[in-house]
Amino acid sequence: MSDDGRQGLTIIAFIGSVFSPYYAWSADKNPFAHCAMNVVLYGDRTRFAMTERGAGSLSRSRHHIAIGPSAMEWDGTALTVRIDERGAPLPHRIRGTVRLEPRGFTPGPFHLDPGGRHRWWPMAPSSRVEVAFDRPDLRWTGSGYFDTNDGDEPLASAFTRWTWCRADLPDGAAILYDVRHRGGGGQNLSLRFAHDGSRREIRPPLAAALPATSFWRMPRETRSDDGRSRVLTTFEDTPFYSRSLLASTLGGEPVRAVHESLSLDRFRNPLVQLMLPFRMPRPYQG
User: Fold this and answer.
1) Cα distance between residue 210 and residue 228, in whole Å
2) What is the pLDDT of residues 17-73, one digit of tens each?
3) H-helix segments, 79-141
């Protein structure tokens, strides 16, 4: 999120794209055959790209991953992301560079399910970001966050839904991650990290209701110190997923929190699966 709150950016490198209909329909379930660099711009120049590519478009090493024409590289100090994608369903070009510099790193991953088959590591919850795009023309600096996820089965096999939110605090960041397990029950993580990645105590916030999204009526909920929260902006309103900016209170501080809500029951709907290729094209690869 930019320092002035007007611009936002999300970049996700997928190997075995968890939201890919092609991956779900494939016979061999080879994750390396279903890769994508998902890029989303919010604010003055909204863009979305998530082109799926096969194993021949993937290159990776310990410090580098490239998917098609886009790549991420770690140099020991910063993560540099070079983007060259084309949007969908509108084919706008998205080309530029993002540099993310972590202030510190957290110790390791969390298990999101009882069997330990799904892992999430909020690796660098407090980072600085520099954004420089020429397509569209866009320059800004702001706060950032870097995490990793991996799993041994489809998300919908383990979860029915989840909500996640992150907010900057004066001394670091707060993250809430609430998951509902398909077998019943769930897990609510309330985390607070200092700038250097060390974990600090946080009082578990109270449940706070949020309105459903206006178009697809995606349910949203969160938690806050006083059980109240307000939607400032809805960035994404899709049949199974929403991303929003909230005004809330966490760790005793008024915050602007980036919030995500995901319904995996909606995602599994056959009609939703048929809609996905319009946002997630896959060029023919013979």
Assistant:
1) 9
2) 999 999 999 989 999 999 999 999 999 889 999 999 999 999 999 999 999 999 999
3) none
Query: How far, in Å, are 16, 111, 159, 281 from residue 31 at the CA level?
Result: 4, 21, 20, 17
Residue 269 three-state SS: coil
The one-letter amino acid at 57: S
pLDDT tens-digit map of 151-177 = 999 999 999 999 999 999 999 999 999
Amino acid at 189: L
pTM: 0.95
C-alpha–C-alpha distance, residues 248 and 169, integer Å: 12
Please give the single-letter amino acid code of residue 212.
A
Name residue 116's beta-bridge partners.
Answer: none
**Helix intervals (H) in 61-197:** 155-158
Q: CA–CA distance from 126 to each of 66, 139, 194 (Å)?
A: 24, 20, 8
Q: What is the DSSP string of 200-267?
A: E--PPPEEEE-PPPTTT----EEEETTS--EEEEEEEE-SSEEEEEEEEEETTEEEEEEEEEEEHHHH
Residue 184: partners with Cβ closer than 8 Å, 6 or more residues away: none
